[in-house]
Each structure stands twice: as structure tokens, then as C-alpha cells.
Amino acid sequence: MARIELENIKKAFGKVQALDGVTFEVKDKEFFVLFGPAGAGKTTILNCIAGIAMPEEGVVKFDGEVMNLTDPAHRNVAMVFENYALYPQMTVYDNMASALRSKLYKTDEAEIKERIQRAAKIMKMENLLERLPSQLSNGQKQRVAMGRALVRTPNVFLMDEPLAHLDAKLRNSMRTELKEMQANLGTTCIYVTHDFMEAMALGDRIAIIKEGKIVQIGTSDEIYYMPCNEFTASLMGDPEINIIEAEISGSADEYTADIRVNGDTVTVPLPKDGAVYEKIDDMGLKRAHLGIRPQNVKYAFEPTDGYFKTTVYSYESIGNKSVIVAECGAYQIRMIAPNGLNVAIDSDVYIRLETDHAIFFDSETKKYIVRYDEATYVALAASEMEE
Amino acid sequence: MAGLTLNHLYKRYDNSGKKKKIKNDFAVKDLNLVCEQGEFVALLGPSGCGKTTTLRMIAGLEEITDGEIYIGERLVNNLHPKDRNIGLAFEDYAMYPPLNVYGNVAFNLRAKGVDKAEIDRKVREIAPLMQIDDLLDKMPVKLSGGQKQRVNIARAIIREPELLLMDEPLSHLDGKARQAMRTEIKRLINKIKCTTVYVTHDQLEAMSLADKIAIINFGVLQQFGTPTEVYDDPANEFVASFIGEPPMNILETKIINKDGTFFFTFSESNLQIAVPKRYYDVVEDGFRCKMGVRPMDVLVGGEDSQGTPEEIATFENLGDERRIGIHVGDVLMMLITEDEKRYKRGDIIKLEVRGEKTHLFNIETGERIREN
Amino acid sequence: MKDNKQKALNIVMNILLIIYAVFALFPLLWMILISFKSDTEVFSTTFLFHPTLANYQEVLLRSDYASYIIDSVIVSGGAVLVSIIVGVPAAYALARYQFPRKEDLAFQILSYKFAPEILVVLPLFMIYQKIGLYDSYVGLIWVYQLISLPLLIWVVRGYFEDISVEIEYAAQVDGYSWYQIFFKMLVPLIKPGLVSSALLAFIFAWNSFTFPLILSSNKVYPVTVAIMKYLGTDSAHYGQLAVASTVSALPAVIFALCIQKHLVRGLSFGAVKG
After folding, report:
1. CA–CA separation, B34 and B28 (whole Å)
2. Is residue C28 in some structural domain?
3. How far apart are the C-alpha atoms of B203 and B334, rounded to whole Å?
4. What digits encode the pLDDT tens for the residues B234-243?
5. Number of folded domains in chain C?
6. What is the CATH number of the domain that holds C85?
7. C126 found inside a domain
8. What does the pLDDT look like over A78-113, one tens digit per residue?
9. What distance in Å separates the CA atoms of residue B189 and residue A114, rounded to the nearest whole number?
């Protein structure tokens, strides 16, 4: 159990700047997720915390104590590696006992046995203890890797994409299991993933990493509803958020947005909202990118008032629901629809953007400006933080 | 007209040489399938279920043990692969490395001795369709995974096959590239209207691409139907749990009769769900079976709901939706909500199950129990 | 139909293999036969002769042959031991660390094996004479590194490369020091490669002829050179020569037979993947 602080960590591999001034603080007992695309530097951050990698600049602190010069063995961290890193010559039991048998964390065998059995029960792998790693499936290896960390009482659990090598279904069910386990963890945990569902579901807070820099830190709701830029917005949610370029016109009484659809200009209303109108006024906003989530796009197959016409680019099931992609010339609009509709490709579809859920981004810097019902979401995120 | 007919198809691997007799040595067992002309059919199943063997038999790369394969009206059992008029796109890209993209796409036609002008016309026609027109001069090593796969498909369709066979063509791509390629394949097949058999282990891919899905397990066809059919009306427990993510909740249940109304009950749980009236003819007091219900059909009731109070075991906020897990005995029952309310572990909710959406399965065989 | 064809093919293959085996083993067999012949019968090409143990008595009991064997054991064993002590860390460094011109260095080590011994042995002779390594155990053990070290480094490096670096990290995080990790985690994993390459290196060192011929004379006398003694300037005791050769070949043959399975698996990389 410890509070982990990173201050201005920099690390380069040759000419590649893997980490470029990473600063964050993880509270005691917090489940903190590092989330970003492949190669963003997430694993390097974990390695710096574990002491496996040495940052060229910056400070790593556990409970206020600088750990930079402490070797990995003495940091008392438990790590789950992406490739599991099980010791091939040892049985599952011995793998799990490994840390507790080291000189530093010496525990008596009876205690080891008890802890392993408890961890094995949580991870549902009691029947695997006598096997060798080579006799395990990927899912089982993943459990053992987790189990090996769970038997310890470390300062912090470090988990590097522990679910990445599982197939989609197993990954989802393991994620749920992990969530269930989380309450019993009782220890600070830093979890690396590139799967937004894992990040959203598991993280008390999420740090978004891109090219070695922290882009945003916040609760899942904060990041989902108030992404700091278009990059963050596009990472969260499947299908991806629609980003639509709009020209804003009108006056303080009523603003509207003009968007281009297949060469035509379509005017969509921007309903009155205190914060939004204020921002438009203050900034004299003429042009913005509207971020609209696919569930906030409505469709019809008949001409309908307030809907504009486009054509269907594709219609695909994504499991319990489907996605219609509509062709709009320079870009496409994705929207959620139920399964089993009879939608032909290239047929006409009429769509309406629920602009009262829109997020405004700067058309140049792509940064967050304002969103509808901002106050509500700020309050929601704040209430989450309290828990 | 049928594009492809499989008639009592068997594949048995010869295990006589091995000391240990393998019990189930049929890779494919009595497979009957009729794909209509122009239909996109997915062969779906877990790895080792026989779907790739089936595809290889259709292609002529694998001998068949018994049964008949018709492409169109032609019996092709004894035809050499090259005479079957099929296009193949496999998991690994298998391009000829010394040839550029143009050469790779044209290779087959050149081998057949089609004249140059004709080849060029065809390549130029197909390139924009697969969006490889600006790649034609590139060498295979320079291409990304998605591009290679497009070339691979272009190569398969350039000979205008009667039947297009694809084996997990997307499995090497990840995340967004995979999604984008899926959409492209769908649009392309829609355009060329070629009968297509597509092998995959990813239910999502099958659901989103195919006109019809053949679900195979242990070499045996489980169900053959449209995506909606297999999703809403699964033939057995295997299909029900294989299709859909999160998978259908399947729980062992004992049905009780309370004053003429039947209820599903579960061991170590006070959850009770009304049995739909349509099942009244097939159930009785004390009847044991498995009940399946999709996570979308389990709801959180409002304040005045009659639902059973249950404690939340897991709550996952996924942004677009939220998933709640509830312990029913030792099974974690999942439900999906899209409302904005946030819960946490330990909260009590009123659980409502859309009884009319439940499915019954035989406890031993897993077969669907249907109303009379 | 198919089965018959298969059977016929099998028979033909077996016959070919037997012919090859006879061809390959014949010199060995002939040598053993000679060792039991008296000098007068040595040149008879029939298999009929009066077996005698006289040669064995002469070589094993009435000459210094045992001391030659001991010299061989010391020199070859010492060479392998040094190779292990030096080679395993070197292999680890080549597998794990990035440093400039790493591959060049690795290739250079391997290239020692390419150079014909006769090419380097003359300059070595002169150097050894000067610095007093000539005709010493240390000198031979040192020069044998040319034979055993490259082999060991290359095989063991492959093994180290197959062990994912995360396993070391995991052990570090588990609270082990580097030395503990090395001996507890890594050595068991490279053991098949280490054992097979060490035994192979031992056999190569044992069989080495050129180096001891030129770089040693009286004090250190490995068997390979000692055998030459039986080819006197005036007379050739082929029977004794055969005995000496047979006995000196024994360790190699025994080792090869013991580790046969190990050797094939150990030298094909990637056998440890977990």
C-alpha cells in the first residue's frame, strides 16, 4: 500500500523519446489505469515504477520517498507482465511461491501455502497448481500471472496488459472477474491497457498517454464526457465518436451550425444552453468541430422533418446492436441501430444529429472547448471522485 | 439456384497409424449446407471445429471421406482445385515476393495465358474496387497488413470465380484496421455478388458480414441461419452462448408451480422469474432445465418495480453502456443498461427479467426445449 | 496397394541405411580388430587371426599411456571449464546487452572456428616459446579456447535469447538479486544447451591434434599426440597404435552415446520455450 508519485519522468531509447515529462500521482489504494495506443510509452512507465527501467530524468516516489536508486527487488512491487513471464521450469505452485521464498520476502511454507490457496481460489485455478506453464492455455497462464502477484502484499500492483492476449470473449469475462476482485485487492494498482472498455470499467482514474506524454487524467466519466481533445474522444467509445466540422452562425439568442453533407450545406440547430452559448459569445466562435457520439445520431428510412438525407455506406452488427455508417462526402457518420434491420448498402437514409449532446472542439487545435450540459457532467465526475 | 451444395459431407482423418485411437476422429461429420447463388455464408466455430477442413474440402485441397460437393450444378468431388473455378483468400497473405502488386494480381491470368491487354483491363478494373490502384507498383514487403489483404482478395476475385473462399482473412489485422477492412469486404462482396464462404472464429465478424451463418462445433453443424435467426432463436445452448457479447446468461433452473403460475427458481438465490405462458405445455412443477436470457433482456426496475431485489457484484461503466453483474448462485448474471445512473458494488437493485425473451435448454444435451 | 508401396519403400530405405552404417563404422571396426592382432598378422585382410591381448598389455601396463590420458583429461576438461566460466557470461552479455559493434564481436568469436588450426599454430608456437607457455597445461588450455569457446558461446547465447527478458524482470520484482536470478532461474533454463555444447566442446578438444603436436612436447602429452609414438622411425607397431587409438576414442564414443538425445535437442535452439 503506497502512494505513487512520478515527477517529470523522461526516458529515451536511442533517438526515440519514449517518455517525455510524465507527471502523475496515484493515491493510496487507487486503481489507476494507463491507457493509450500501442507504443505510447505505457509499459515504460510501469517499468520505471518497478525499477526495471531507469529514467534519465525525473523522480519516482513511493509514499513520498524517492525510489530512483532502489533496485527492483527492494521496491516491493508485484508485477503482471504482458507475456506473463512465468518461470517455465517451475510448477504453477512454485511460480506463485517464488516471491515469498526469496530472501527478501521470506515467508514460512505454511503461510505460503495458505496464501497460494487463497489466491488460487480467487483466480479459480485450484486445479492448475501442479502443472507446468507449458501445459496451460493462454487464459490459464494469465490467471497464474495474476495469482503470482496476488499472493504478495506489495506497495503496488503493476499490471501490464494482462488481458491483451486473450480472445475478445474471454477478455470481457476476465475483465468482469477482475472488477469483482478489485474490491478485495486493497492495494494501489496501476494497470496498463489499450482497450478502452478495460480502462473505463476498471479505473478509478484513467491517464491517457500519447507519444510519451500524458494527455488527460480523469475519471472514466470525465474522460468520456469531457475529453480534453479529439484524440481522447476518439479513443473512448465503440464505434468511434463522430467529429463533424461546423460553421456557427446566429446571435446570442439562437445559434445554428452549418455542416457539409455530400456537397450540400445542412443547417442543424444548436439548442440554447448557458455554458455553450456563453463560450460561443466569448470566443466569437465561428467554426468548431462537433463531437457527437453514435448513440446521439438518429435515423429514419423515410423523409422526416428535421432529418437530412445521405446514403448508407455500411450496416454491421457489433454484437447486441448494429452500426449504420452514412456517407457524407468527406467524412462518414456512424450511428447505433438495432440488429436485424433490413438496410441495403447505398440506399437512402435520413439522419438527425442530436446536437444537444454535442462536444465542441477547436477546429485548429482540436482541443475541448465546451459541451452541452457541462455542469451536469462536472457534477457527475465530482461525485465519482468522492467515492 | 444454389451456389454451393454440401451433401452429407464427411471428413475422417486416418488415425490407424497412431497407437492411441482417437475417439472422435471425424473432423467433419454429415455436413449438409446449401448456399444460394450470391449469398455470403460464414462458417463459424471455435478453433478445431472443422470449419477450415470444410473450406479446404470445398477448395479441393483436402480429400473428402464421403459425401458430395456441388459448385453451382457441377459435382466437383474429383476435380482438381484449379478446375473448380474458385477464388481463395487465406489467413496468411502468401504473395509472390519478387512480383509487385500488379504482378501478383495478374499472376493467375498470366499463368492461364490470357492476353496482355485483357489482363491489364481487368487489373485496372479491379484495383479501384479494392482501393489498391496506387499500390500497383509496390512490392509486397512494403505493404501494410490491410493492404496485403486487399491485394490478396483482389487476386482471388480477378479470375471471376464462381465461388469465393476466405479463411480468416482479417485475423492478422488489429483493432480499427480490422473493423475498416470488414466494412470494405462487405461492400465489395455486395458489389461483385459472388457466392462467398467465409471461415472465422469471431462471432462478431460472422454476424456483421454474413447473410447466413453456419455454426459448427466438433465437426457437426449446430445451426444454419441468418444472423438474426441464430441470435434470437438459437438451436441449442452452444449456439446461444457462442453468439453475442456479452454471451447469453445461461443458468440451471428448477421450475415451480405457484398457484397455477410457473416460475424459474435458482439454487442459492431468491430470484424468481415468471415462465412465459407459451412454455406451459412443456413444463411441470419441479421441471429442471437451463434458462437462457440475453443481457439486454435483463433490466433494472424502477422504484415501484415488482422485481427481485438483488445485490450488485460488479458494475462496469463502459461509456456507451454500463454492465452490471449479479450473483445468481455461483453464476454471474450480466445485464446491460444504457441509462445514466451510476451504481457501485453492493447497491441493491430491483431485477426484472423479460420472461418472454427467455429460452429453455435441456440440462444434459443442451438442446433447445421449444414450446409446442 | 498403398500399404505395399509404403512397405517396399521402407525396406529399400533400411537397406540403404545399413549399407551406409557399415561403410561408416568399418574403419572403427577394423581398428578394433587390429588391436587384437599380433604385429605379424596386422596386414592380413582376412577376418581370421589369433586374437591376442599382448598389445593391450604393452600399451596400458608397460608404457606411460595412462599419464597421456590424464594429460588429455586435464587439458580438455580444463579447457571446457574455462569456456563455461568465461563463455556463459559472454553469451549472456551478447544475448541481453546492446553495445556498439556487438554483432561484429559475436561473429569474430565464431570466426575463430573457421580458421584452420595450422594457420595460427606457427605464430602461436613462437609466442608461446617466448612467454613460456610452451609445453604447459595453461598454454594448451588457453589455446583450446579457440575450439571450445566459440561453440559454447554460440549455443548458449541462443538459449539466453529464447528466455524472455520479462522472466528476469519478474524475478527481480519477486525480490531476487541478479546472482540468484542467474543461478536459480537462468541456469536451469540454459542447462540443456550448456551440457550438450560443453560435452561437444570436450570431444572436440579431446580430438584436437595440431595444437598439442606443435605447442607441447614432453611435460604435457595428450593422447592424440602420444599415439604418434607408436609410429617409430624404424618400426610401426600398428597393433599398439590401434590399442591407443581405440582407448582414446572411447570417451568420445561413450559421451556421444550418452548424450545423443540431449545433443540433438540441445543444439537445436528454442527447445526451452515455456
Report:
1. 16
2. no
3. 19
4. 999 999 999 9
5. 1
6. 1.10.3720.10
7. yes
8. 999 999 999 999 999 999 999 999 989 999 999 999
9. 58
Residue type, B123: V
ipTM: 0.88
* B154 close to B126: Cβ distance less than 8 angstroms: yes
CA distance B158 to B156: 6
Beta bridge partners of A261: A264
Report if residue C202 sits inside a domain: yes
Cα-Cα-Cα-Cα dihedral sign, residues A245, A251, A252, A255: negative
Q: What is the pairing mode between strands A368-371 and A359-362?
A: antiparallel
Residue C248 to residue C233: CA distance in whole angstroms = 22
How does pLDDT run across A233-251, given as a tens digit for each residue?
999 988 999 999 999 999 8
State the Cα–Cα distance between residues B336 and A336, nearest whole angstrom: 15
Alpha-carbon torsion (A14, A17, A21, A23), positive or negative = negative
Cell numbers given for B108: 493467375
CA-nearest residue to B313 within chain A is A180
Is beta strand A205-210 parallel, antiparallel or unpaired with respect to A213-218?
Answer: antiparallel
- Residue C9 belongs to a domain: no
A331 contacts A244 by C-beta, under 8 angstroms: yes
Identify the domain containing residue C126 by its residue range.
58-267
C-alpha cell at A249: 452562425
Of C203, C91, C72, C87, give the one whose Cα is nearest residue C141: C72
- Dihedral, CA atoms, B250, B255, B258, B260, nearest 10 degrees? 110
Class of domain B2-242: alpha beta
Distance CA A26, CA B41 (A): 50
Quote the pTM value: 0.86
Sign of the CA dihedral C83, C85, C89, C90? negative
Instruction: Give Cβ neighbours of residue C98 (< 8 Å, ≥ 6 apart).
Output: none
> Mutate which of B182, B188, B193, B316 to test chain A, going by most A C-beta atoms within 10 A?
B316
Residue in chain A lying closest to B245 (CA): A319
Supply the pLDDT for residue C234: 66
Residue type, B160: E
A touches which chains (3+ CB pairs under 8 A)?
B, C
Helix (H, G, I), strand (E, B) or coil at A91: coil
Give the end-to-end CA distance of chain A in Å, rounded to a whole number: 18
Instruction: Tell me if residue C181 falls in helix, strand or coil.
Output: helix
Residue pairs spanning A and C at CB distance below 8 A: 74
Nearest to A360 by CA among A284, A261, A298, A285: A285
Go through the domains of chain A in sequence order and give each one's CATH number.
4-235 (3.40.50.300), 242-386 (2.40.50.140)
Determine the Cα–Cα distance for residues A46 and A189; give it in Å rounded to an integer.
11
Contact A345 B182 (CB under 8 A): no
Lowest mean pLDDT among A300-304, B108-112, B255-259: B108-112
Do the chains contact at A52 and C164, CB–CB below 8 Å? no
Q: Best of A121, A169, A315, A384 to disrupt the B interface by mutation (most B CBs within 10 Å)?
A: A169
Return the CATH number of the domain spanning residue range B250-369.
Answer: 2.40.50.140
Considering CB atoms only, which of A168, A200, A316 is closest to B182?
A316
CA distance B298 to B294: 7
Nearest chain A residue to B174 by CA distance is A38
Contacts of A82 in chain C (CB under 8 A): 166
Judged by CB atoms closer than 8 Å, whether chains meet at A173 and B186 is answered as no
Asked if C175's CB is within 8 angstroms of A79's CB, the reply is no
Coil/strand/helix, residue B269: coil
Residues linked to residue A308 through DSSP beta bridges, in sequence order: A351
Consecutive H or E run containing A60: strand A57-62
Residue A268: CB atoms within 10 A of its CB come to: 20
Between A168-177, A209-218, B18-27, B208-217, the lowest mean confidence (pLDDT) is in B18-27
CA gap B361, B166 in Å, rounded: 33
Max CA distance (Å), chain A: 76
